[in-house]
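Exam revision sheet. Question 4 asks you to relate a sequence to its structure. Input first:
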Amino acid sequence: MNKIRILVLGPKEYPFGISAKKGELPGGGADRLFFNLSSSLVNSNIEFHLVVQSFSKLDEEERINDNLVVYRVPWIRGKYRTVSQFLFAFFKSFSIKYDMIFTILEPPLIFGFFLSKLRMKKLVTMFGGLSGKKHGLKTYQKEISILRKINYFISPKSDLCIFASDREREDFEKENTGDER
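Answer key, structure tokens:
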């Protein structure tokens, strides 16, 4: 049976919790969501190709089971570590075979969008809270404003958008002048 190969961008670590052991902030909702999703589909015809941050003493590429392959990429510590992770993931993605792209959270959406156009793959996006007006990141207002504008441009061009809540979808639809999803 041929498996559907899905490139996943969004989670920062695998296994979940490894970054906390290395003195970094632990993974959050995207990591938990993906862990639960991949665990529930372990006996399916889906094969996930997950690209995460590299931590010392972990293999650069590791097959976890029949439906999960993890690729670990470099990243740069600091305020924009997430952006650096997805920039490296973007380049790594050209050496991975996949049928579609699944992005979780807003920053990877940008890289997933360009990959979907360059590789001619379907794009499924899942938002995680930054698109809505009520989030707790008070110190990143300028960055969040920029991400929102990018989301409103890219989201209507995605093949499917998934929202974390009805409130987030409603906020998005009120501000988005394109397709309502």
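Marking note for examiners. Residues 75 and 174 are 35 Å apart (CA to CA).
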